Amino acid sequence: MAIQNRYEFMYYVACTNCNPNGDPDMGNTPRVDPQTMLGYITDVATKRRIRNYVEMAYEGEDGMNIIVQQSTNINRHIARAKQEAGFEDCEKSKNAVYAGRKKACELFYDVRTFGAVMSTGPNAGQVRGPVQISFGKSLDPILPLDISITRMAVADNANGATTVEEYQEWEDKQPEDKLRTMGRKQIIPFGLYEVRGFISANLAGETGFDDRDLKILFESILNMYEHDHSASKGEMAVVSPLILFKHVGTDSDEKQRVRQAKLGCAPAHKLFELVSVNKKKEVEYPRSYRDYTAVVHLDQVPKGVQIGFQTNPYEEICWNQLPEKEDWFHEG
Fold it and tell me: Where are the domains positioned within the chain?
């Protein structure tokens, strides 16, 4: 059964000597707001890493396929959904589109979670997903650096060489400085990024996004950077805990309380304001998330809303109190 509660969530990503999210229109430099110099990470970049984690951790499991895979044609997966629903790829009747849409939600985790436009070829309609993630934004201005590096080898066609011997002959004729070249690497020394997310119980009912899918989403967020290390990414980590807001309702009447839990009991922006992370006064240039003070105002949580904290993806969520082992966030 689909989830019955509305959620909001937020988390912080510490980025050290890395490129959190390069902009291809700007030579792959870290994305930045030119007016404030605050860095940002696009929602697409975050969803890509969630997809990558689910694809790796749940490979082969029913219903855990990914429709937006790297270097693939999405139409192939749409055609599969329609075929498994019992319709030909070219069938464009309402029944065929609806059946393909429903089957895609059953087959693909990211369709159930984020939705998808599946009218790009074999039409399976469009799905609006229950989970939406905002652009991550750094808490302070970042400093993009363009660093020169020396490559100790070259990649050259060597005058059309095709064999090992021909490449070796070409290499022997080159002076040493011709066998090295210069390159560039774009990084920021440090940035602490806040990311916010929204989960609609009403839209979950349309895609079948259930409690297990929700648990996998939170697991993926906490683990996604642990399996995405590369030379360009440097050090990136979700700094625990993952902070959750669960709407449970207030009414004594059960039917009305269920309705409130789905629709929500407080505006999302008011819930996010309960969390405050600020740079310490004595720190001029932060280089660690511990250069910030993190406070959560548990006493101001509205009625009908529970606040939860998850520090370990395989442990239970700690509701309405900070986890005992949490040493970064403090109660306000």
Answer: 1-42+135-144+188-322, 46-131, 145-185
Other Cβ atoms closer than 10 A to 276: 13
Model pTM above 0.85: yes
- The mean pLDDT of the chain is 92
All residues at 6 or more sequence positions from 160 whose CB lies less than 8 Å from its CB, including other chains: none
Classify each residue of 67-101 as buried b or exposed e, where b means 16 or more C-beta atoms within 10 Å of its C-beta. Answer: bbbeeeeeeebbbbbbeebebebebeeeebbebbb
The residues, ordered by sequence, that sit 6+ positions from 244 with a Cβ below 8 Å of its Cβ are: 7, 8, 9, 218, 307, 308, 309, 310, 317
Residue 73 makes CB contacts below 8 A (sequence gap 6+) with none
Indicate the pairing of strand 305-310 with strand 235-247: antiparallel
* Residue keyed to tokens 């967020």: 221
For the stretch 18-44, pLDDT in tens is 999 999 998 899 999 999 999 999 999
197-240 pLDDT per residue, tens = 999 999 999 999 999 999 999 999 999 999 888 877 779 999 98
> In this structure, what are the phi and psi dihedrals at residue 191, rounded to the nearest 5 degrees?
-160, 140
Contact between 133 and 200 under an 8 Å Cβ cutoff? The reply is no
Q: Name which of 302, 305, 297 is nearest 330 in CA terms.
A: 297
CA distance linking residue 254 with residue 66, whole number of Å: 37
Would you tell me how many other CB atoms lie within 10 Å of the CB of residue 250?
14
Place of tokens 């065929």: 96
